[in-house]
Write a structure and sequence with these properties.
With 96 residues, this protein is an alpha+beta fold. Helices cover 40% and strands 15% of the residues. The longest helix has 18 residues.
Length: 96
């Protein structure tokens, strides 16, 4: 909704209510857009933040899956228990 600044003065309370309900209110000056009313979103309270964190943690616990053992996480780099890198086992030594 576009309305001139002059007309908005008489309807300010109504315009604020409309903006709070999600309507886009644009004030015009000399036929050109000058200002837009936008509803301010309130910041979550500490209790709301804590509840959100607890919900995220609970969801993570419920959806967690066990993965490979981290102690063996580098096995793909080496041949089994051999500490020689897998790609160097088949490479030739060019540093003579």
């Amino acid at each position: 909704m576009e309305i001139s600044v002059t007309n908005a003065k008489a309807k300010l309370t109504d315009l604020v209510h409309r903006a709070e309900n999600g309507d886009e209110i644009i004030l015009t000056r000399h036929g050109k857009a000058a200002v837009r009313f936008v509803a301010v979103k309130s910041s979550p309270t500490s209790d709301q933040k804590r509840a959100l964190l607890n919900a995220i943690r609970q969801n993570a616990r419920q959806n967690a899956t066990s993965g490979p053992n981290a102690a063996r996480s580098q096995d793909f780099l080496y041949h089994g228990d051999n500490f020689t890198p897998a790609d160097s086992m088949s490479a030739t030594n060019d540093c003579d």
